[in-house]
Amino acid sequence: GQQLNQSPQSMFIQEGEDVSMNCTSSSIFNTWLWYKQDPGEGPVLLIALYKAGELTSNGRLTAQFGITRKDSFLNISASIPSDVGIYFCAGQLRGAQKLVFGQGTRLTINP
Amino acid sequence: DTAVSQTPKYLVTQMGNDKSIKCEQNLGHDTMYWYKQDSKKFLKIMFSYNNKELIINETVPNRFSPKSPDKAHLNLHINSLELGDSAVYFCASSQGDRANQPQHFGDGTRLSIL
User: Fold this and answer.
1) What would the pLDDT profile of B35-80 be if each residue is shown by its tens digit?
2) Is A81 helix (H, G, I), strand (E, B) or coil?
3) What pLDDT digit, counting tens, does each position of A27-56 carry?
């Protein structure tokens, strides 16, 4: 069953606004990865997090590995039109060999 | 210079047919994956191979059979296609067999069953 809850499912914002999305679980994760998927393409890795409390930035994107190891968030500052897409969190459960993905957050930007 | 390439990009076929999707990666990775993305965009792993050996085999119908001729290729054959098989299938690769290694995805194969 679904082990990751990603929210919100969709966001409609104005260009220039900041964006925040998160993933939560009742299980402990060893790794959190954030991906972006553009229409007609495969997911592309944005940020990888490996330690509880880790805060990592990639340009205007910032992601954090929650202290409890059960959650992670992704922030996008000063959004621009090319930020449009679907953002996925993915995590490796402790002891597991595979990644589980969140349901995705669809970001739409009004010019 | 595409890192993970899948063919075909689009596949439209009738129920009951057998079809194959091919995947190749030129990243030098030794682990490859197949994912299924449904109409709600939910991504779920199907199979994973490390150095041509099957390491993940999720609950997938036997009609789906992966084959890895070498560590740069992972193909997916589907027998007796059903309506519910309509989805986007993504191939991915990573270095090493640990799940925490970043995975690089292909652009997907859009399978539509008539």
Assistant:
1) 999 999 999 999 999 888 888 888 889 999 999 999 999 999 999 9
2) helix
3) 999 999 999 999 999 999 999 999 999 999
What pLDDT score does A53 carry?
96
Nearest C-alpha neighbor of A3 from the set A105, A106, A102: A102
| Residue B102 per-residue DSSP state | P
Only one residue has tokens 């409890």, namely A68
Q: Of the candidates B4, B23, B14, B1, which has an alpha carbon nearest to the alpha carbon of residue B105?
A: B4
> Quick one: tokens of A107?
């970001």
- AA letter at B23: C
**Preferred mutation among A27, A33, A36, A97 to probe B, highest tally of B CBs within 10 A:** A97
Mean pLDDT of A83-105: 90
Contacts of B100 in chain A (CB under 8 A): 30-31, 48, 50, 92
User: Torsion angle of alpha carbons B38, B39, B42, B43, nearest 10°?
Assistant: 40
Q: How far apart are CA B13 and CA B31, in angstroms?
A: 29
